[in-house]
Amino acid sequence: MAKERITGSEALMRSLEHEGVTTLFGYPGGAIMPVYDALYGYKDKLNHILVRHEQAAAHAAEGYARVSGKVGVCLVTSGPGATNTVTGIADAMMDSTPIVVIAGQVGTSMLGSDAFQECDLVGVTQPISKWAYQIRRPEDIAWAVSRAFYIAKSGRPGPVVLDFAKNAQVGMVDYEPCDIDFIRSYVPVPKTDPETVRQAAELINGAKRPFILVGQGVEIGGAQEELKQLIERADIPAGCTLLGLSALPSDHPLNMGMLGMHGSLANSVKTQECDVLIAVGMRFDDRITGKLNTYATQAKKIHFEIDPAEVNKNVPADVAVLGDCKQTLAEVLELVKPNCHKEWIESFQKYLDEETSVVIEPEVHPAEGPIKMGEVARKVTEMTGNKAVLVTDVGQNQMLSARYFKFSQKRSIVTSGGMGTMGFGLPAAIGATFGAPDRMVCLFVGDGGLQMTLQELGTIMEQHSPVKIILLNNNYLGNVRQWQEMFFGKRYSFTPMMNPDYNMIASAYGIPNRTVIDRADLERGIREMIDTDGPYLLQVAVIEEGRVLPMCCPGNDVDDMVLDY
Amino acid sequence: MEQEKTFYTLIVFSENFAGLLNQVTAVFTRRQVNIESLNVSASSIKGVHKYTITCWSTEEQIQLITKQIEKRIDVLQAHYFTDDEIFIQEVALYKLSTPAVLENPAVSSAVRHHGAQIVEVNPTYTVVSKKGLTDDIMSLYYALNDYNCVLQYVRSGRIAITKSCTEYLDAFLEERRRIHEEQQKQK
């Protein structure tokens, strides 16, 4: 193909197009202006969503990536524009989300001189990104962009940062598209040792009380079907991590619900009783394990994992099956014999029943009193036929919607797990509407988190993005309040919230809205939200001192769960 | 109870990209492990840099550190070793006051006794160089210091080569080359 002489900015547009990018989230500024000028000519090919703050561009890119499986892209200027994306980059790193952040940078002749809006972005983001690179010459653009996308999406996905110096944006280059699918020093998917597959199958076949932990790796690897076949054939009950919740349909008879600090009681108890613990694409976060040195010590552990650095990091594995779980699960499946663990599975029921009567029923079907958060989540999931994408912010809104929402399709939960980023929800939900335009996107957010990125209502207004915002308003920073209640003698230090009139705010942005205070109006409110085309804000006045239960208190044994207090 | 720590030597190979040293050392910082010595130089393979890093650590921790270093995109390989698995060398330079050296014959005797070399003599100072292991180098330093003649002293980071008969990096690069070729053929 003949080379064509174009500017670096134009080369970036071509490179993005070459990578199949159709959507990007961004915010212009001085050091990225040549790129925005080129983007003006690509309006029909690249749909640029103008956010209201760069943090939101990063979270929106994450939301887009999480529901679509594609790489989310954000475009920002240097200095403050770039540093505003840092939270999103760190969030994407923790939750293995493929995004590429392209930030402007001052020209190379000014680098290191504390020039206007100069910031050492590569230095700042290196520890929190999969790869960070400064493009200093227009000749490097095609290579760097291709490498960035390859790194972001391959293996264990993650964020990549391209720091794009201004002289490279305006310089001329003989553009030629570049396709990188190999990096000598980078092994995205480690080789699977067939012996580990054999050992894993042997442990599974011999297990009397096996238990599977389903992580986001199953979603990322697209191994939902392989997982389902494995648990069905070997008759193994499964618990899902927060990010893995939609990897297995909620109504699957072997799905025992969420794991971890606010997971199901049965899962926590059974973790300490199983004889073989099978972890698939999860990393034994402390919110899952509780106290590490008592965690499932009785069990042999099998760890299916793509990232060798996760093996033995927190919980030592007896058998570590490295590789892509879609592949490794399929290989193990060939050696796994049909089995029946009726008695073991039935033993979960006692704890499921106990949790249902003590925790779940009072939360989702309260007879009287203020509306509860779990009640709202359960109603919304029912009324959307369990088909909606759940996006959450962080805190009680997150835990309760994750607990009570139900999933029937893959890639249906978008939440900030590892970082626990408040303010993530609203922009991530915007991104999700672009990543899954045919699906309903329901955002559960609290009055604290909504205000952290409230400005994005402007993006919703402009894009008419159909985000269904369910604002669970308890006039508190609820999760911290709960911890203060439990561990700090009810000293509610700076957790009560004085709130604005959210209906007026939504109306100011032209977003249809309603506030529900009485239980009798809840269903009607949700119905109106669902039936309204485009965005909607449903504010629900929920119980002020609402609590997320059950709870494995930090540092406790995983099965030491508080059901009520 | 604090686990017993061992002195480990990490050998890391990376592509020659700017900013990699930061990425490597950041792994130690996060895990709160002090680097005792660090040597970075070009390796025998063009474009590949070799890092020799020493630290005190538990085996469990050094395993995690090694894997986290290797996880960085442009790091080719990282391995850790105990002292019995490698040949080790360090070098030190001692700048001594020439009048003090001349005044006390015990100084030059110590230099000879330690197998050190004199690399420069002028009326003001004498430069001595010694290679060896930390203990030998330090022992000469203490001896000289007792004679009050040391003006400057510096000891290098450790360099090491493995005793193993396999060259891990060569095997790795060969394997990667083969995989790349296969990938190309499939296209």
Which CATH C-level class of the largest domain in chain B is it?
Answer: Alpha Beta
How widely separated are the two ends of chain B? 56 Å
Which term fits the overall shape of chain B? elongated
| Share in β-strands of chain A | 15-25%
Which second-level CATH architecture of the largest domain in chain A applies?
Answer: 3-Layer(aba) Sandwich
The averaged pLDDT of chain A comes out at 97
CATH superfamily of the largest domain in chain B: ACT domain
Number of domains of chain B: 2
Strand content of chain B: 35-45%
The CATH superfamily of the largest domain in chain A turns out to be Thiamin diphosphate (ThDP)-binding fold, Pyr/PP domains
At the first level of CATH, the class of the largest domain in chain A is Alpha Beta
Report helical residue fraction of chain A. 25-40%
Q: Tell me how many strands of chain B there are.
A: 9
Number of strands of chain A: 22
**What series of H and E elements makes up the topology of chain B?**
EHEEHEEHHEEHEEH
Query: Strand order within the widest sheet of chain A?
Result: 3-2-4-5-7-6
Q: Measured on Cα atoms, how large is the radius of gyration of chain A?
A: 24 Å
Instruction: Give me the secondary-structure category of chain A.
Output: alpha/beta
Structure description:
The complex is a heterodimer of chains A (565) and B (187). Chain A is of the alpha/beta class and 565 residues long. Chain A has three domains: 4-175, Thiamin diphosphate (ThDP)-binding fold, Pyr/PP domains (Rossmann fold), CATH 3.40.50; 194-346, Rossmann fold (3-Layer(aba) Sandwich); 370-542, Rossmann fold (3-Layer(aba) Sandwich). Chain A has 23 helices and 22 strands. A six-stranded parallel β-sheet of chain A has the order 3-2-4-5-7-6, with helices on both faces. A six-stranded parallel β-sheet of chain A has the order 11-10-9-12-13-14, sandwiched between helices. A six-stranded parallel β-sheet of chain A has the order 16-15-17-18-20-19, with helices on both faces. The longest helix of chain A is centred in the middle third of the chain and has 23 residues, at 342-364. Chain A is globular. By secondary structure, chain B is of the alpha+beta class. Chain B has two domains: 6-81, ACT domain (Alpha-Beta Plaits), CATH 3.30.70; 87-159, 2-Layer Sandwich (Alpha-Beta Plaits). Helices cover 38% and strands 37% of the residues of chain B. Chain B has helices at residues 20-30, 59-71, 98-103, 105-113, 134-146, 168-186; strands at 6-15, 35-42, 48-57, 75-81, 86-97, 117-121, 125-132, 150-155, 159-162. In chain B, the strands form two sheets. In chain B, strands 5, 6, 7, 8 and 9 form a five-stranded antiparallel β-sheet that branches. In chain B, strands 2-3-1-4 form a four-stranded antiparallel β-sheet, sandwiched between helices. Chain B is elongated, with a radius of gyration of 21 Å. The termini of chain B are far apart. The model of chain B has no long low-confidence stretch (mean pLDDT 95). The chains are: A alpha/beta (565), B alpha+beta (187). The A-B interface holds A 122-123, 126-127, 130-132, 151, 181-187, 307-309, 311-313 and B 14-15, 19, 22-23, 26, 30, 60, 63-64, 67-68, 70-71, 73-76, 173, 176-177, 179-180, 183.
